[in-house]
Structure formats: structure tokens, C-alpha cells
Amino acid sequence: MATYRFILVEERSPGVLLVTLNRPQQLNALSAGLLGELGSALLAAAEDKAVRAVVLAGNERSFSAGADIKEMVAEGIAAIDNPARAQAQWHIARFPKPLIAAVEGYCYGGGHELALTCDMIIAGENARFGQPEIDIGVIPGDGGTQRIPRVAGKGLAMKMCLLGEPIDARTALAAGLAAEVVPAGQALPRALELAAKIAAKAPVAVRLAKQAVLAAFSTTLEQGLGVERQAARLAFTTEDQKEGMAAFVEKRPPQFTGR
Questions:
Q1: Which of 58, 110, 111, 144 is catalytic?
Q2: What is the pLDDT of residue 78?
Q3: CA separation for the pair 118, 120 (Å, rounded)
Q4: Global confidence as pTM
Q5: Could you confirm whether 67 is annotated as catalytic?
Q6: 3 state DSSP class of 190
Q7: What is the pLDDT of residues 218-252, one digit of tens each?
Q8: Which of 27, 50, 178, 223 has the most CB atoms in a 10 Å sphere around its CB?
């Protein structure tokens, strides 16, 4: 396994990889180096058949406070708009396996946008979500203006982006930005628990289900239904489909192999 400077990567249970943002003194600000390492780690995880789900976490104080302001002061728009960063974000946003964000504390700006690229967010009660870019004279640049309204609607998106004020975990849950809220300090254990459950499912079916759900954000309903039906057809061609149905009939746990 590769060694990184700004992230920690470790296997936490069979099939589950934990990736931890590791710039605690900077509240896990998303520097070019951190995002590059994260993109590389997820590319490797995508190609590793042993990895079936990934949890992305910060620490108890901060998931990520956003982009690295010092880099933006020094480099201007090039700090967040350059080929290397775009490539890293491509690998993150298009990661084909389940990606769960465990969020405690600050989840602001680019950190919030990063969490929104994950398939679900598990939030501690102390989590705070925000897009404060307006307070420094800019706007969200990593997807916030597009992903928030698609999930939570125009009103909350406008409120977050125009006022720059954070929302709490319960508000995020009610808006659909978070999938669950748990007691403070329990986001990571809960995310790992969910990832382990997903890792025990049929890997091909999991990948196809993720693709089908994500299609709802970029297609018409008719087109999305077509994506779903094609994915269902593909699932029926797998050995895991036969094993899963046989196990159901025989009243035993299935043994999925990813084929």
C-alpha cells in the first residue's frame, strides 16, 4: 500500500478501506497535495478487487474546513482551477464503489463539496455544514452551487451560498444532505459499520445500484429508467445473482464472490 503525507489509508475490516484526511493543524484544509493524494488513493482502491467500500473521514474537530486559503491567496484561481486538481476530483467524483463520508465538526466550503461527492454522509451531532465562500468574496467552485440544489432544493442552496452561514447536522438530515445523524464522536464507527454491511453484498450489484441512482441526477426520468433496466439485466448475468437467489431459496447466507 502506498505511503501518503496528507492522508492515512488503512483496511479496517474485510473489504472496507478507511481514508482519513490528515492535516489536523489546518483543519484538514484541502490543499493541492491532499486532493492529489486522495485522488490517487481512490484510483488505487477502484482497481483493487479486495476493496468493496471506502469510508472518508476527518477528525473529531473537523472533516474539512474547506480549500486551502493560503494557496488561493498565493495562486489565485489557479489554486482551484488547474489540470492536476481537476484530475484528482474526477477520480473522487467518479469512484465506482460505495464512498461514505463520516463527518464530525467543520464541513465547510470545499470540504462540504467533497462530502457531497460521497454516496452518503453520516454526521455527528456536532457537525456543521456550510459554504462560506461569499464571506471572502468568491463563490463555491467545487460543485456546491450544483449539488446542493439537486439534493436539498433551491431555497436552502441559495441560503447557504448567499449568506455563508452554516447549518447544523439535523438541518442537513432534514434537507437530505446527510443520510444519518448520530451522537458526536460516533460518525466514524457508524460509517464503518455501514461500509462493512455493504462490503458483504454482491459487489457487481452494489456497483450497478450506485450507477443507477447517480443517473437520476443527470438524466430524464425516462432515460434513468433505461439505465436502471440495463443495470438490472447486467446483474442477472452474474454468478452472484444465481448464488444470492439460491441462498434465499435454501434459507442460508449467500457467499458472494464478485463474479
A1: 110
A2: 83
A3: 6
A4: 0.94
A5: yes
A6: helix
A7: 999 999 999 999 999 999 999 999 999 999 999 99
A8: 178
